[in-house]
Amino acid sequence: MLDVRRLRLLRDLDRLGTIAAVAAANTYTPSAVSQQLAALEREAGVALLERTGRRVAFTPAGRVLLRHAATVLAALEETDAALAAVRSGPAGPLRIGAFPSAVRTVLPAALVALGRAHPALELLVSELDPAAVPAALRDRRLDAGLVHDYDVAPATADTDLDSVPLLDETVHLATPADLDAEGIADLRDQPWIMASPGTLCHEVTLRVCSAAGFTPRVRHRADDFTAVLALVAAGQGVSLVPQLAADRPPAGLRLITAPTRRRTRVAFRRGAAEHPAVTALIAALRTSALTFAR
């Protein structure tokens, strides 16, 4: 019988690429990970990995097991969801990851509604960058999390996770109030306030500006939208800001509709879609998001 924990380590190796990275992600030593994978090979009765010095590669049998491991892990999630569904109702810990602007806007009302409707739920929220949510779901540090992408920078599919739509947002061009501009093309000569390189917000700004025929000239870098809006209001530049982050803008700035939209989804492990706690969370978030959109 194959050990499920070892199957997860095999999936982590495919995702992370090295034994050392798998060890760090699971708080093991590299030696312990190697021993667990060797034990999985003995259980499978066939070589799963080829070792060349410090590098490892999957054998054809290893690739076959990887595909089936995804199915096995999803089936376990479905089983857990089915067992939870026969209990009296959503109960126990529900660990939620959400980005800052969602924590401030759509999440509080959803948490209140969940607490009233399902008092046996223990709601645990972590403020988390959407880029960190998939790993936290795979590592079982979260049960559900908010992720997003933009129409100009769509997310790639993740075979370990499922998700459902939550919110489709307007994205704004935030400019000082006294700046005469009607659209993105009018901002080509303006200084820009941009997120850190390597972030999704940074990439989206580059793509939107590129589509308008220019490269933004960066004056300031800030990853917190509250700071971004304060800098714009102070006349320090222009920026892209999604609707959730611009619901209460400071005085001194103007918001213009940008040629892109941000799409937020509720993500969870594959197979967990029917878990009562997850379905209750999705329903509460959708009600709150609808109220916010109105």
Blueprint of the fold:
Layout (H helix, E strand, L loop, with lengths): L3 H13 L2 H8 L3 H15 L4 E4 L2 E4 L1 H26 L6 E7 L1 H5 L1 H12 L3 E7 L5 H6 L5 E7 L10 E16 L14 E4 L5 H12 L5 E5 L3 H9 L5 E4 L10 E17 L6 H18 L1
Parallel strand pairs: 3-4, 3-5, 7-8
Antiparallel strand pairs: 1-2, 5-10, 6-9, 6-10
Helix pairs in contact: 1-2, 1-3, 1-4, 2-3, 6-10
GO molecular function: DNA binding; DNA-binding transcription factor activity
Family: Belongs to the LysR transcriptional regulatory family.
Pfam families: HTH_1, LysR_substrate
Description of the molecule:
- The protein has ten helices and ten strands.
- By secondary structure, it is of the alpha/beta class.
- Helix 1 crosses helix 3 (30-44), helix 1 (4-16) packs across helix 4 (60-85) and helix 6 packs across helix 10.
- The model has no long low-confidence stretch (mean pLDDT 91).
- The strands form three sheets. Strands 4-3-5-10-6-9 form a six-stranded mixed β-sheet, sandwiched between helices. A two-stranded antiparallel ribbon has the order 1-2.
